[in-house]
Amino acid sequence: MAVLVSAGRRGRPAAPSRRRAAGRRTAGRSLTHLLLLGGGLLWLFPFLWTLGSSLKSPDGFFSKGLNPLPDGVHAGNYRSAWQQASFGRYFLNTVLISGGCVVLVLVATSMAGYVLARTDFPGRKTCIGLISVTLFLPHGYTIIPIFDIVRGLHLLNTVWAVIIVQASSGLVFATFLFMGYFSTMDRQIEDAARVDGASFHQTFWRVMLPLSGPMLATVGLFTCISAWNSFFIPLVFTLSKPELRTLPVGMYSFIGQNSTDWTFLCAGSVISLVPIVVIFLLLQRYFVNGLAGAVKG
Amino acid sequence: MSSLSRRGFLTASAALGGTALASALTGCSSSSSSTPPGTRTIDHWDWFVSQEPWLKQEIALFEKAHPKIKIKRTVQVSDKYPDLINLAFRGGSAPDLLMIPSTPALQEQVADGWLRTLDDYATPQWRGRFPDGNFYNGVDMVEGKVYSAPFSGQAPWLQLYIHNGLFKQAGVTNPDGSVKLPKTWDDVTAAAEAITGKSGGKAYGLGFGNVPNTSLPWWVELFVRGAGSPAGYGTDLLDYRVGKWTFGSDRNYTDFVELLLEWKKKGYVYPSSMSIGDEQARAFFERGKFGMIVGGVWNQSTWTQHHFTDYSLTTLPSPTETPKAFFYYPPGGHLWALSKNTKVSDEAWAWFDWLYSPAAGQRWVESGQGLSIFPEANKNAKVTSQQFQDYIDMRQFALPMPVPAIRNPDVSKVVVPTVTPDLPDVLAGLYSGQLKDVSGALSALEDRRNKALAEGVKQAQAKGAKVSLADWVFKDWDPTKPYQNKPA
Amino acid sequence: MQLLDTAAPKPPTGGRGAAAPAVTAPAHGRWQRIKAARWSYVYLAPLMALLLTFVVYPIFGSLAYAFYRWNGIGSPGDYVGLDNFRQIAHDAIFWRAVGHTFVYAIVVVPVQLLIALVLALTLNNRKLRFASFYRTLFFLPVVTSPAVVGVIVQLMLSNFGDSLNRWLLDAHLIGRPVDWLGNPKIALGIIILVGVWQTLGYNLVYFLAGLQTIPEEVYEAARIDGAGRLRTFTHITVPLLRPVGLMIVILAFIGSFQVFDLVQVLTGGGPYFGTEVVNTYIYHLAFGGNQATATEPNVGLASAASFFYGLLLIGFSVLQVLLFRSLAKRRATGRA
Fold it and tell me: What tens digit of pLDDT does each residue of C143-171 get?
């Protein structure tokens, strides 16, 4: 791509000196693209290899080695992996749990981030202190106390348990991101809303929150990534209900059961990776902006 | 993506989540369509992977014979099983019938109120179905009450597998052209040298998959047994003649580890052996990457599935041609149990009884998983695989061993503290060159192990248990003969 | 530094906001102020409830275990005081694990930050086409789980470590075949390599976000003043990026010190603890080793190790912050 573009440019008539400078610049730019593309391909090599290998035959897997190109298209790997591991159900559970986590985290942290950044009240500093300390505290063997709480709430073996516990694990960082984002927003927006007679709630829900789209996307994405990939929490809180298991839990037993059916494993890996990659691609354009908003100031 | 379509996306996913949520919340159990009224469901937990086909077949047969009982099977990941069982009991959602986890000890599971005593079902007549000498405190009974029953029959749990193709290629054959099975340590070395040398760098004499720390102890155990060292059942059996672990004081351990390091140095060992797991090593053996591997009967089922049959097996290679010690097993055993609070104990017992029936045992043998506790099942089973028949014929090399808890039930109260680094760690350290002094490392391990036992005994004594280190000494044990355990 | 500068939060929007009546309201005492800000508390409530119930309470709940000998079944009964801490502090394997974790962090963080910074500077160029495409490319490993990545790398190495060996042998780069994950030094190197690869994306986008906060006009002004590229970089980009940079460094260290899944999947900490990191060490204590030897879990010891390590980390963080402060101070005085 880069080569084509620079070739086209070079064809344009130009004064000799300018042409030389421009030529140097295009050459530099082509080199940049070449390096980025080469580096990027190298970077993605493990994925490309997995994708390719998921389509290989068992023999092709060995004869092709590290070559990602498959020896034909053996889509049967996907069909069997999907059926054998009931990925369909796991997939739905994972979507549900990740979605629930995202909603819960977004609601809890955006509200908290807003009041911590934009309002003053007695105890505010204590709250911020408490929140930031948890970032540094060791998260030791906490599964038994959490398990006991969830049992006390009669939520064992429900999706709610997984959602709440999983969401709680990522609250602190998200709150800080929202705090950062809201504290850099222009105060005039709030003032204008108030002049229009908006209440505290309306200001937040109708004005401030819609304006924090990039941050919602960022926090949503980060939450979604960790919820999607989480293994231990869904394993523990659905232990008596295998029908509520998520993709990583299913993937774990799938790995255990097919440890030498490598093409199968690759197909399973692709199945578990694709959805989160797609979600990322959909949301990614927002989140650099969101982060930029949070660190500004 | 505009904000509108983002919202559309979110709505869509919310809707999707909503339907799933509804089904998740209503319990999701709209599966069985044609169950007769009055059907009761048994929750069943296990961690079977390669044995799964057998279990599935048993479930199908059982449900057909008992139309009013349904079995809801949950397979748990094997390495998380003890944690999940613990949490399930903690959360009050334990299965009705469970595979007994490897930790904690059976008596602690009983003490914590996990397991249901089976005395009302497992009557003396019922127990009479098993061969004599199979119900003991600390094995399948606790304080005189039955909680489980033995399932498997015993044969040497480790074998040396031989790749026929590579052996023939390297000319390690008998005059009639058949593969020459190695009988001594030197035979193994010679075969390894021939295979490595003749393959032109394509194959190695031997290989294993040690991740996560599994296979090296198997090699050690298989080879020192032949040399006359009775200790180390899975790493956990001491030499009951003296009541101690003998990793350092018994020369055989050092001798074999030094031989293994010699093999490594000469390039006979598949170089990635420390990078791969046992399953992978099995697959590479199948593909002819190395000629010998140590493993159990579980190797055979995957190879059968892959239609790989060109292999042989032997066991107990020794420095001389005759093995001086064998494999040992405690009498009795436990596999399945009922949980204490099961509300369907009659149904769960019916399933338990089914699993422990000679017929199910025979199908177990026929599926190539191992031996059954019932001699008639082993005898009547129709075995088609020569290699599995070879395994069955090795039964003579597995002998019952002394069990301290049978002689003194208080021994069950001793919890021996975990030792780190343990045998698998030390072997990995020696093999990877991080530990240099073989006999020094093994002696240190022996000390750690024996001190831990003494410490465990001391703690148990402090709590009032009547135990002493003498409970682990069986002066009358002859490792070449079956041991008759005598309850106190 | 908004994210972590909690000691001195940016003053909230002053006194005139309807949502911030605290300052405008005459000082009728604390109760009045609390009442006026009631909605702030309501908005904070869900977060605090979740945090206290599922994060703070369990942390302190599990702290208690550190004083017992307990296998995680039933409730702890064997009180042993500080024995567990003493045992951890005297365990050579624990200190080896700490060593490996620090080596991991100290290699991964600078290497990763350097690559991420160079990439971010390249991609931040507005004239560069397909910048967002490249950004996506380099961020992608982040969205995948370390466990799946571990499986993939393990697959590649175990199946084709052979071919790689043959190739290296033929090129006379090595004398004898390498057991990639069986040699502790090489294994740790591979873990580091994969660690850099997998988490680089976060730092890349943090840097990009930081760079975006530097207004174009500043660069414009520098260009008019005739400043060269290098000068612009050292005099504008670096100073303006420093606050964000500090945050990135701290987050990168926090993440690296908690490395777990990768190691667990690739080597399980072996061979012979050669790649054991603190979190795998704790895991092995809490969940009783591996399948090969069914060892009794020791939750008390695991909790003690976890807290001991937490203290070490807090000490390290304080040291880090002090170091940055003194550096900043020296620079400030040097300039004056």
Answer: 888 878 888 888 888 777 777 887 888 88
Mean pLDDT to the nearest integer, B152-162: 92
CA triple A270-A273-A274, angle to 5 deg = 80
**CA distance, residue B7 to nearest chain C CA (Å):** 22
Confidence of residue B4 (pLDDT cuts 50, 70, 90): very low
CA dihedral (C266, C268, C269, C271) positive or negative: negative
Contacts of C43 in chain A (CB under 8 A): 111-112, 114-115, 204
Interface of C with A in 188-217 (CB under 8 A): 197, 205-206, 208-210, 212-213
Of B16, B87, B91, the CB nearest to A95: B16
- Domain coordinates in residue numbering, chain A: 2-53, 77-295
Distant-in-sequence, close-in-space partners of B294: CB < 8 Å, separation ≥ 6 = B158, B159, B160, B161, B208, B215, B218, B219, B222
- Delimit the domains of chain B by residue range: 40-149+333-372, 159-330+418-459
Position A194 scores a pLDDT of 85
pLDDT at A162 over 70: yes
A168-191 pLDDT per residue, tens: 988 998 998 899 889 888 888 888
DSSP E strand boundaries for B360-478: 371-372, 398-400
- How far A164 CA sits from the closest chain C CA (Å)? 8
Of A213, A240, A260, the CB nearest to B283: A260
C41: number of Cβ within 10 Å:
17
DSSP B135-158: --BTTTEETTEE-----EE---S-
pTM, to two decimals: 0.86
Q: List, for residues C168-188, the tens digit of each pLDDT value.
A: 888 888 878 888 888 899 999
Q: Where are the beta strands (DSSP E) in B228-283?
A: none
Question: How confident is residue C288, by pLDDT bands cut at 50, 70 and 90?
Answer: low
Residue range A77-295, CATH number: 1.10.3720.10
Give which of C107, C55, C92, C59 is closest to C256, Cα–Cα: C107
Q: Which CATH class is domain C71-335?
A: mainly alpha
Contacts of A190 in chain C (CB under 8 A): 13, 17, 19
